[in-house]
Amino acid sequence: MTDVPTAPPRFDDASDDVLAYLRRVIPIGTWTVTRFDGERQIYLSVDDTDLGLSSGDSVAWSDSMCQYSVTRTRPTFIDDPHAVAEYAAIVEKSGLGVESYVGYPLTTSDGKLFGTLCGFGRSRLPETAEINEELIVLLASLLARILEADLQATAVARALEAAQRNADTDALTGLVSRNGWQRLLETEEARFRRFGDPGAVVIIDLDDLKKVNDRHGHHAGDDHLRLIATMLTDTVIEPGIIARIGGDEFAILLTDVTATTVEAVVDRLRRTISRSDVSASVGFGLYSIAEGLDGAWRAADAAMYIEKMSKRPFREHSRGRAVVD
């Protein structure tokens, strides 16, 4: 009988199993696997009984106790955070009444910090907590291996999808088509949620394509679209996918980028557009586990529309009320 190949373990499933086990071994209020995205600590998997934390919640890294534990080679056990100055300041700012903390970093084989395996709660640590130091190291090491395997499998899948994306190419601009964009968001959504990837959706809408078509013909309009496509491709050097999602609307999915980087990308786009013969409005929305990629798209579209409306002059309607041209 031939063995049926099984799928490799997923990082999120393994995280849930580890947290459930730690709950039994060291029963403090909250156990969680987190992601450090360069600016925030995001709670990916959460086993919580008293602090009200949920998957997708986040805190600034500067407000996280884990910022201190990741510099150590052994697990950190804090039974009275009020007695340690740096921890006391964080507990006071959080207002959560935390009385205990356990933390250990999750790193990939190249030494890059992914996040942490940590626990904290409103009660003191069990007296036997520290005898589980080696267990925490072992569990974190196993999680890190599963994480790396999952990340590698995801990278291979993305490369294959990129090769297959030629079928989803917009013929005029060479960018991903609207259908390709929809499929892209569907496949990336689960990955963003699994790894807590930081990212964003950027929307670019041309302001004057209809005028170009009316005055100079559709060939000129096509040249206009090809020009903006080239500008986007040349300007956006961060990891991501650029698509034409409408007649005069473009979208960018930025992956593994912080909010600060996204703002820098958008500022660079606006400067490039302002130096060209193209007029366009730009908006962006940051990814969150709660709202998903679709929520980021809606936020980007709303921000773009606000910018577009701000450019349109107001005139008096014949009935005496202000309208937008």
Helices and strands, with pairings:
Blueprint: H1 11-25, E1 30-36, E2 40-48, E3 58-60, H2 66-69, E4 76-78, H3 85-94, E5 100-107, E6 113-121, H4 133-164, H5 178-195, E7 199-206, H6 209-216, H7 218-235, E8 240-244, E9 249-255, H8 259-274, E10 280-286, H9 292-311, E11 314-316, E12 322-324
Antiparallel strand pairs: 1-2, 1-6, 2-3, 4-5, 5-6, 7-9, 7-10, 8-9, 11-12
Helix pairs in contact: 1-4, 6-7, 7-8
Protein name: Diguanylate cyclase (GGDEF) domain-containing protein
Domain GGDEF: 197-325
InterPro entries: Diguanylate_Cyclase, GAF, GAF-like_dom_sf, GGDEF_dom, Nucleotide_cyclase, Rev_trsase/Diguanyl_cyclase
Report on the structure:
It is a single chain. With 325 residues, the chain is α+β, with helices and mostly antiparallel strands. It folds into two domains: 11-153, GAF domain (Beta-Lactamase, 2-Layer Sandwich), CATH 3.30.450; 169-320, Alpha-Beta Plaits. The chain has nine helices and twelve strands. It has helices at residues 11-25, 66-69, 85-94, 133-164, 178-195, 209-216, 218-235, 259-274, 292-311, and strands spanning 30-36, 40-48, 58-60, 76-78, 100-107, 113-121, 199-206, 240-244, 249-255, 280-286, 314-316, 322-324. The protein has a six-stranded antiparallel sheet with strand order 3-2-1-6-5-4. The protein has a four-stranded antiparallel sheet with strand order 8-9-7-10, sandwiched between helices. Strands 11-12 form a two-stranded antiparallel ribbon. A hairpin with a 3-residue loop joins strand 1 (30-36) and strand 2 (40-48). Helix 7 (218-235) packs across helix 8 (259-274). The longest helix has 32 residues, at 133-164. The radius of gyration is 24 Å and the shape is elongated. The model is unreliable at 314-325 (pLDDT under 50).
